[in-house]
Specification:
This protein is an alpha/beta fold. Helices cover 54% and strands 9% of the residues. The chain has 3 domains: 3-85, Up-down Bundle (Four Helix Bundle (Hemerythrin (Met), subunit A)); 100-283, 3-Layer(aba) Sandwich (Rossmann fold), CATH 3.40.50; 302-427, Orthogonal Bundle (434 Repressor (Amino-terminal Domain)). It has 20 helices and 8 strands.
Length: 443
């Protein structure tokens, strides 16, 4: 995500490296490179020019402190302006009402149905009772897809297979939500492969019939400026209240995220960061700006971890570490928890100073597969007591996991190093963390 833009912005700032002061000439050169980087990222030319003109004006209007280099100052200005371009402030979902009604809109293939379920899961975690309504009567299996997702997250779905009138279905869903005491109703609507009058008229009629609190436009960020143009067309008809950008964890240039607020003047409220139901994040413009500039985003990293790791389990694990009772079963559980946090490379990129170091390294979500295969090939006794794993057991584990004895030995050795390190760390006042040993198969 934004890797290409980040590297080009970093290159632009190098123009000022070693410069003692800001001048019109060196700022002009840097700003030119920044504008090129934004346009290459599929940002609208007018928006890119307006952005860089503002950066240039602010840079030339400031004196550089002795303790701050011109490069640092311009980075700060670009960071602040990027945050404003992305929306300026975080805006959560509006779920006031009984029930609060959220209408989902977008083209077919944007991830609207999946993100209806992700949003339902997000709201459910806030302690609200949620219902979803299946109003896509055109796409084959759309209703069934929403039902399956609803079962997966424990959220009921209102559907009427016999009824082919989406407006009527939506109205009946509102009644059902009231009768069943649901505090939030999420209405999934039909999409098309392209914008057409029939589609716009239909969703406009649904809006008029159910008067939603929120109208969220779901758009695939991979489509770049097409996403922005589509957003404008939908906004002209619906006057939607916010945007959900999907596939932001993919190989996106970032143009949609950077342009959409300026074009429609509506906030990006959520971003889809993966396929799992937990992979929906509240959008923070300031944090995203920092990530684009390679500063990391440790706050979001910690928030993701807090959502996944249970306090009671953490306390149990802490006690095990202190007593030197950390086993391969515990290690396997921790791997599964980490995988739930999202794309591994994206997670690493959130750690300040680490993103640049790994940008050219291929870090796959399958990085843990070799470790998992070895652990799964162990008996319960071997997982609990690795000391009993002798030469014959190592051969059997290697054969069962499709690895070799060297890889099994490597994991056993590094697991023991990690266990000692974690035990030491938990006993140290102030928590000065020792160096983490490298784990195998992380290529």
């Amino acid at each position: 995500m934004f890797e290409n833009l980040s590297s080009k912005l970093e290159k632009a700032f190098k123009t000022l490296k070693g410069q003692g002061r800001i001048t019109e000439i060196n700022v002009a050169e840097t700003v030119k490179e920044i504008r090129k980087a934004l346009i290459d990222a599929d940002v609208n030319y007018k928006i890119a020019k307006q952005f860089t003109d503002t950066v240039k004006e602010k840079a030339l209007g400031q004196d550089v402190l002795t303790s701050v280099s011109p490069g640092q100052l311009l980075t700060k200005i670009v960071n602040d302006e990027l945050a404003l371009l992305l929306g300026g402030k975080t805006e959560d979902i509006n779920i006031i009402g009984s029930p609060a009604i959220i209408l989902m809109a977008g083209l077919q293939g944007s991830g609207k149905t999946t993100h209806s379920a992700k949003l339902a899961s997000y709201i459910k975690k806030k302690g609200r009772t949620v219902m979803m309504a299946a109003c896509d009567v055109y796409r084959p299996a759309a209703i069934e897809q929403l039902k399956v997702l609803g079962e997966q997250i424990g959220v009921p779905v209102y559907a009427d297979i016999e009824n082919k009138n989406p407006v009527s279905i939506a109205q009946n869903a509102v009644k059902a939500a009231k009768e069943q005491g649901a505090s939030v109703l999420i209405v999934d609507t039909a999409g098309r492969l392209s914008i057409d009058e029939e589609m716009m008229a239909e969703i406009g009629n649904i809006k008029a019939a159910i008067q939603p609190n929120e109208i969220l436009f779901v758009v695939d960020s991979m489509t770049g400026q097409d996403a922005v143009n589509t957003a404008k067309a939908f906004n002209d008809v619906l006057d939607f209240t916010g945007v959900i950008l999907t596939k932001l964890d993919g190989d996106t240039r970032g143009g949609a995220a950077l342009s959409i607020k300026s074009v429609v003047n509506k906030p990006i409220k959520f971003v889809g960061m993966g396929e799992k139901m937990e992979a929906l994040e509240l959008f923070h413009p300031d944090r995203m700006a920092q990530r684009i500039l390679g500063m990391g985003d440790i706050v979001s990293f910690v928030e993701r971890a807090q959502q996944i790791f249970d306090d009671k389990e953490a306390e149990i694990l802490h006690k095990k570490l202190l007593k030197d009772q950390f086993t391969f079963e515990d290690f396997y559980t921790q791997i599964q928890q980490i995988k739930k946090m999202g794309n591994i490379k994206d997670l690493i990129g959130m750690i300040p100073g680490v993103g640049k170091a790994v940008k050219n390294i291929d870090i796959s979500d399958d990085s843990f597969k070799g470790i998992e295969a070895i652990i799964n090939s162990m008996t319960p006794a071997e997982r609990k007591t690795p000391d009993i794993i002798n030469g014959n057991r190592r051969k059997r584990i290697a054969m069962g996991s499709g690895t070799d004895i060297q890889q099994v030995n490597q994991l056993l050795k590094q697991f023991e190093e990690m266990r000692k390190m974690m035990k030491t760390f938990n006993k140290m006042p102030g928590g000065m963390m020792p160096k983490m040993p490298k784990m195998p198969f992380g290529r």
